[in-house]
Amino acid sequence: MPTLHIANGRVLHPDHSVTESDVLVDQSTGTIESVADPDPDPDTDPAETLDAEGGLVIPGLINAHGHAAMALLRGYADDKPLDAWLQEDIWPAEGELTAEDIRIGTELAAVEMIRTGTTGFADMYFEEPHVAGVVEASGLRAMLGHGFVSVGKDPEDARADMEKSVNFADQYDNLGGGRISTAVMPHSLTTVNEELLCDAVERAREVDVPVHIHANETTDEVDPIVDERGVRPLEYAEEIGLLEDGDFLAHCVHVDDEEIERLADSEATAVHCPASNAKLASGIAPVQAMLDAGITVGLGTDGAASNNDLDMFDEIRDAAMLGKLGAEDAAAVPASAAVRMATEGSAAALGFDAGRVEAGATADLAVVDLDAAHLTPEHDLVSHLAYAASGQDVRHTVCDGQVLMEDQEIQTMDAEAVKERAEEQAADLVERVA
Ligand SMILES: N[C@@H](CCSC[C@H]1O[C@@H](n2cnc3c(=O)[nH]cnc32)[C@H](O)[C@@H]1O)C(=O)O
Ligand SMILES: [Zn+2]
């Protein structure tokens, strides 16, 4: 049975204590076999050793909301609010996206994620079978779904798109050696009409997958629901059958106290996207209040076109910074809470048995190099993860027991070729849109 030995480093445990420990990974099951004191005289001869000397073994970070192929639209349109940005720039460009654009954009995202210690991600986009192909080849873990809207569409086309979302979720769940899971993904509570939303939720239950949706991202999204229905969006969400176990809501920026309570009383989770919310000036989510209420909160970058990178270390820092500003309290969203959002919070939101370095968990890990001026001195390593480290400090990335990056060299993909191809494809896309 092949064993991966992550040796000579320190380990961040689920309680956020740090010890000098070795991690043994059973590569046949992709799980962590043990986290134990370093063995000075190992009598077994592990097939593979990853040297973590001077490094910290952390759970692989999990990006719980995004649109991976939008990496191809990074820097394409900036400095606009959500509605104008989507309608004037992004949707017209997306109208021209081919399956090949999406495959290459997703490959670019995969390279960036592996490079920066992200081992799992959620993706709401289109041409998802091609996304699944990239997930399979890259070795990452992912929760995938076909996103759909009804606004601006012929009702029959919109219904067909909803069916496509259900069929994809049904057919691709648990593929990729179990690394792929799926959800039905209506775009938002305002861009999909009530009838289609209700049907999508019902169909998701039938095929036994969760629902992922953008919720309460901007006031422009909340106000029409309140005006037309006289209820807050999350009450509407519950009325149409959402907020069940496994459902996860992106953003939750403009949620009032009653909605926070409703979400806390439900089995659904929230995914906080601080950088996207700041860049589109959507607002500041009441993250500390959500955590205090007992809501499981994960962390996501959203698409690279509204971030503009997929580095989850940045996201952790933004979550802590914005959380403090929003609560007007420097004690809000402390380092440890922000790190937990990107690890166990995101894992719980996506239903991954990951987000912790512990025997029995899936072996989704990253090793962060601590030997850097910006990570010196070592008063508090959790503080460093939240406030000082970046994805560029990641030395090794492991997912499902497979080494995806060793010594900053990606093993499963040709990073240089992917970048070159993405550059060409993006230029080609811009010509097609013009
Ligand atoms: N527009 C598609 C379906 C939606 S897929 C997911 C969509 O989310 C969009 N998106 C990206 N970032 C955000 C965000 O922050 N809020 C809302 N939508 C976003 C993205 O551009 C993409 O169109 C259709 O024709 O049916
Ligand atoms: Zn989004």
Automatic annotation (TrEMBL):
Cofactor(s) needed: Zn(2+)
Known EC number: 3.5.4.28, 3.5.4.31
Entry keywords, A to Z: Coiled coil, Hydrolase, Metal-binding, Zinc
Catalytic activity: S-adenosyl-L-homocysteine + H2O + H(+) = S-inosyl-L-homocysteine + NH4(+); S-methyl-5'-thioadenosine + H2O + H(+) = S-methyl-5'-thioinosine + NH4(+)
Pfam families, A to Z: Amidohydro_1 (PF01979)
GO MF annotations, alphabetized: 5'-methylthioadenosine deaminase activity; metal ion binding; S-adenosylhomocysteine deaminase activity
Binding-site residues, Zn(2+): H65, H67, H214, D302
Binding positions (substrate): E94, H187, E217, D302
Cofactor binding note of this UniProt entry: Binds 1 zinc ion per subunit.
Known role: Catalyzes the deamination of 5-methylthioadenosine and S-adenosyl-L-homocysteine into 5-methylthioinosine and S-inosyl-L-homocysteine, respectively. Is also able to deaminate adenosine.
Family stated for the protein in its record: Belongs to the metallo-dependent hydrolases superfamily. MTA/SAH deaminase family.
HAMAP family membership: MTA_SAH_deamin
Name of the protein in its database record: 5-methylthioadenosine/S-adenosylhomocysteine deaminase
Species of the source: Halolamina salifodinae
Gene this chain is encoded by: mtaD
